[in-house]
Amino acid sequence: MATERAGDEPRQVSAATLRRLERASGGLATASIAAMEQRLPWFRRMPADQRASVLLVTQTGVSNFVAWLQDPTEAIRLTAEAFRSAPRDLSRWVSLRQTLELVRAAIDVFEQQLPELADEPGERSVLREWILRYTREIAFAAATSYAAAAEARGAWDARLEALVVDGIVRGDAEESLLSRAAALGWEPSSEATVLVGTSPADDPPTIVYQVRSRAARLGRPVLLGVQGTRLVVVFGGPSEERGDEEAAARLAEAFDEGPVVVGPTVTSLAEAHRSAADAMSALRAVVAWPTAPRPVQSADLLPERALAGDPEAERQLVERIVLPLVDAGGALMETVDTYLEVGGVLENCARQLYVHPNTVRYRLRRVAELTGRTPSNPRDALVLRVGLAVGRLAKSRGLW
């Protein structure tokens, strides 16, 4: 006998009605599936094995309804059991919205057919009320099931994301890195830029929210990892320089106080380890430039990185500063060297070289065009001076 426990007058369902419901459970489940196929086009397009999984959940729900009528105190266990019987990946096939559409279709079938199974006319209204109560519990159970699945996927995604970021920092094999990133929805051909700095808090969910909210407003995909007190962020997007600089500046707001370094933008995630290596090297060396901007490009810290013993920084200085001047021929290297030695005084440089000051101006403009560094700018002058020194050392070792 089924009774209410909410203080109302008990309502009963006879044993004969319960037996009819038990015998009709299979037909009700089949009728529910038929109604789903008729009303929901997306359900008809599902593969047969996925529709069979939905049928399993429906059959379990119908049979549990009879047990629920006999003992309403088992509502939570019985309704949750319907979803525990489904395959683990059912929530990936069917969204929560679609699940509620399926429940609604099943409710309509229940309301049409179950009351007709009542042994007495007076039981029909009772059955209708219990159907509404049970399907409400089913809807809540579905929401709880999907929430639990989302939490599990979120925890798994967070661990997988941490592995991907750690692999980028360590320079792991390309195939394993790309397969993990693809599982997180990262487009393999998307460009990648790495930011590193200090983590703002000991609460990873807060950090994740801060970074992801900014990335979402920028329309950029993002991967992030908290490694102790260090925060590593990888963001993707177009290669437009201004766009990347703006994205880096906005994302840097999510970091704690202190320097934030931006590695070079690379063509794909497979090359992101180069961006990470440059950014990490620059983060270690940025202490030598107290007035560095925030964020600062790793390429702008080449002198400090070279002084710290980074061979990659030395190579880049030779390629970006020395070799262009050597390939241009003429007296460009001599001119910029002399200009720096006399403290940037144009007339003194011209006297040292026995040329007209306009000749020196022309040569310095050529130096700026070839290297991207203006000798009259104090910071660029440091980059040029260190670059020339590194180039001489490299030449003495026969490296170019």
Automatic annotation (TrEMBL):
It comes from the Bacteria. Transmembrane segments: none annotated. Residues 171-285 form the CdaR GGDEF-like domain. Pfam families: GGDEF_2, HTH_30. Residues 332-389 form the PucR C-terminal helix-turn-helix domain. InterPro entries: CdaR-like_regulators, CdaR_GGDEF, PucR_C-HTH_dom, PucR_C-HTH_sf. Belongs to the CdaR family. This is Helix-turn-helix domain-containing protein. It comes from Saccharopolyspora taberi.
